Amino acid sequence: MKARLVILPGDGVGPEVTAAAVTVLHHVARRFDHVFDIEEHAIGGCAIDACGEPLPTATRKACLGADAVLLGAVGGPKWSDPDAPVRPEQGLLALRAALGVYANLRPVRVHPALAVRSPLKAERLAGVDFVVVRELTGGAYFGAKTRSDHDASDECRYTVAEIERVLRRAFELARTRRRHVTSVDKANVLETSRLWRRTADRVARDYPDVALEHQLVDSMAMRLLTEPAAFDVVVTENLFGDILTDEAAALAGSLGLLPSASLGEGRNGLYEPIHGSAPDIAGRGIANPLGSIASAALLLRHSLQLTEAADAVESAVDKVVASGPWPRDVGGGADTSTVAAAVVAALNVSAPAREVA
Question: I need a labelling partner for 65 at 20 to 30 A (CA). Which of 120, 121, 304, 357 fits?
Answer without folding.
Answer: 357
